[in-house]
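Honest question from a wet-lab person: if I give you the sequences of every part of a complex, can you actually get the arrangement of the whole thing, not just the pieces? Trying it with mine:
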Amino acid sequence: MTGKVTSLDVAKRAGVSRSAVSRVFTPGASVSAKTAAKVREAAEALGYRPNALARAMLTGRSKIIGLVVAYLDNHFYPTILELLSCALEREGYHVLVFMAGRDSEDVDTVVEQILDYQVDGLVLGSVGLRSDLAERCRASGVPVVLFNRRIEADGQLAVVSDSHAGGRMAAEHLIGIGCARIGHIAGWDGASTQKDREAGFLEGLENAGMRLFAREVGDFRFARAKEAARRMFRQTPRPDGVFVANDYMAFGVIDVLRAELGLSVPGDVAVIGFDDVPSAAWPAYALTTIRQDPEAMVAATVSALVTEIGGGIAHPPDPLPVTLVRRRTA
Amino acid sequence: MTGKVTSLDVAKRAGVSRSAVSRVFTPGASVSAKTAAKVREAAEALGYRPNALARAMLTGRSKIIGLVVAYLDNHFYPTILELLSCALEREGYHVLVFMAGRDSEDVDTVVEQILDYQVDGLVLGSVGLRSDLAERCRASGVPVVLFNRRIEADGQLAVVSDSHAGGRMAAEHLIGIGCARIGHIAGWDGASTQKDREAGFLEGLENAGMRLFAREVGDFRFARAKEAARRMFRQTPRPDGVFVANDYMAFGVIDVLRAELGLSVPGDVAVIGFDDVPSAAWPAYALTTIRQDPEAMVAATVSALVTEIGGGIAHPPDPLPVTLVRRRTA
DNA sequence: CAAAGTCGTGCAAACGCATGCAAAGGAGAT
DNA sequence: ATCTCCTTTGCATGCGTTTGCACGACTTTG
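Yes, you can. This is the full assembly:
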């Protein structure tokens, strides 16, 4: 029954002071090899490990990063979470996860709760942040990085892909394969990601002297995307090409097209998505899509985070390049 | 520039003692309405929020639950994570996530790190736990619940579905639809989940006087499962029905069958999975599968956790019932 | 051999909060 | 008006660390 074993217990057993054992567990502190050995042995015998909370209180560094994310059903985010968690562990940080509903009111309370834990940094995936909270974070010295979202307020670090270019590439591809009536199934209109992808897409159409043939909103939700597809393809003539704002919705759209409406993809209608989630490569869909690079995105995120935590001032990362992955739906 | 605002600052501004403000933020403490109002106002003005770490140190309750999980590419686990996080937030807890590689050495160091954070509880998804660490947890009074895994050592809380029954149902279903040469693509042989599912499956075959026609190991990995499928279906005569140990692998198997080998599912070979992840319902696969109930599983997990944290002794939950979801692959 | 420098160690003060205990305040009863 | 009892409040202590400062021992240099 070890119960709670503190540094004092170890100190007594090793015949040294609390400071000594503390220094043994603090990399870069000045300890002689002999006492270090004694302390290590005593610690081992007692099963002692430093209390991370106490350390955090004193040093002001909790070594924990808050992550708030709205949903995990879009496979893009689990991928990110896994990558991010591993990358941060490598830097000695750990991830405290908070689920925020889609409504921003929820986000606020959740962010406040996160701050209570004295996190060293905050990454916001798939959600926005009220500016006063951003202000509070800045005041507390907690760096915030927006993931896959920009925000109007400047001075905010944001890691994003070049959604505008991606949207344009989607348009050019659909046009290139001969689509004449091109539709768009949008995500959530409040998201910068949506706006940028769509703006680029429209620009691509315009450059070719075309305009959008149909538009519906799927809100980045699976069920909504299917409804959007049903609405869009009820009319005649129907679109012969559609850009869906992310892969996750694209799966739903393709399901409706093939399974409900009996249409052939890409025979009757070409579909292109955005993200390149792992399942996009599965033969059942073989989804043509605009690829975001998850590794690069999390690398940029942790890089920005650690430089800001270190007291440096990270310069806002450039939008990361995207690439067209041509498969069989467009 | 609020910097760090402590309870003392609030106390001064409200003209009361630190204790008073502490009590205002401690539910169930005795404070008069008048001072509560003063304190609340002062706190609001200063942007004060109690430091969760300091509180945790003093009370011994960090209100954080550690979750260690090996991978997130199998969609079952993101679903669980989302559900679990939401359920725990409702109880006032938060989730500290640790990714553990598949090797158990990694798991050990990760669990030690988690314990450093004085977590109130620990849930281990898709990984095992060395018995000495389990012992250490018990000594520290940290309840541990194994999720979707049993372990030989008794006294361990484990939330599992009735894998045995599920395996049997899979066998009975394949037999019922007329399969004569039945194969099994296994997950990782070290996992109790695998053992139980397979044992039930074999029992189901045996009850019908049949035996396993082929067996390959997919290790719960997507790529491995595809390789396993290629090996299994190289031989002739080939199986006409296969039970894949989880849905995630089943998608890979079906891909190989249809896209690489040109076989019809279920025409040439019936496939049944396990889990019923959301994408199993997508028409592109329409996977027949044995459904685990994620809500029930996390409910059981949370329930066990909170009673143990509360000092009670949770009785090991019964294996949760599974159901056959018949779709179009078997 | 003495002075100066280096290295290792202990002491004590923080970090921000919760809580038992005692004192103070108020209300009600006689 | 006095006594009792209950509610509210302040004081002080402690949670498990890290770390600046000072002191002792030991090594180096002149």
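Two things worth pointing out. Chain B has twelve helices and eleven strands. Residues 16-20, 23, 30-32, 35, 54, 56-60 of chain B lie near DNA strand D (CB under 10 Å from a C1').
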